[in-house]
Amino acid sequence: xxxxxxxxxxxxxxxxxxxxxxxxxxxxxxxxxxxxxxxxxxxxxxxxxxxxxxxxxxxxxxxxxxxxxxxxxxxxxxxxxxxxxxxxxxxxxxxxxxxxxxxxxxxxxxxxxxxxxxxxxxxxxxxxxxxxxxxxxxxxxxxxxxxxxxxxxxxxxxxxxxxxxxxxxxxxxxxxxxxxxxxxxxxxxxxxxxxxxxxxxxxxxxxxxxxxxxxxxxxxxxxxxxxxx
Length: 229
Hints:
Layout: H1 2-8, H2 18-25, H3 30-37, H4 41-54, E1 57-61, E2 86-90, H5 97-105, E3 112-116, H6 123-126, E4 137-141, H7 147-155, E5 162-166, H8 172-180, E6 187-191, H9 198-207, E7 213-215
Parallel strand pairs: 1-2, 2-3, 3-4, 4-5, 5-6, 6-7
Helix pairs in contact: 2-4, 3-4, 7-8, 8-9
């Protein structure tokens, strides 16, 4: 009787094979999976399979921009993400270089990356992006990134289609060298805190023949705000 009852019992989510969990994970976002992970030990194991093989996109943000609200424990499951194609990070100040470096190293198939207002993420943290050979869209806004990162992208022959470089620590020379090696760019957003970007625009006009959109509304130009391309 006991054996018959067991064999006739309905299948539950806990009985699903890994390939089914992967398919389910593709329809869930980061927060859905993390919440499911907290339900039980079995759910934790299943969620980690979803994170590792099913999740394709992740978007994390701390809108209040205060360290006290940036709970480091919420980032623990991120180490299981290895198949991401798109990621967005905004104002997560406890997500520092070591964790960012590990995360990006674990996700070499990234195609789109956005990092905004992350004051504790420096060039050292995002250098693994140079190993993402499928990277086509990159957004960096108010992040302490310098010319070393742009040189690494160039050296690894990363050719972007869209890029935003706004209020970083890059120099005009570093930006010009970068744009010289980006013939596939179709959309550029560029602004520097203090430097006149006019020389960059001249380089872009010569070396980015596929350009369709150029946004410089936050940028500094020369005194008369004119630039002949």
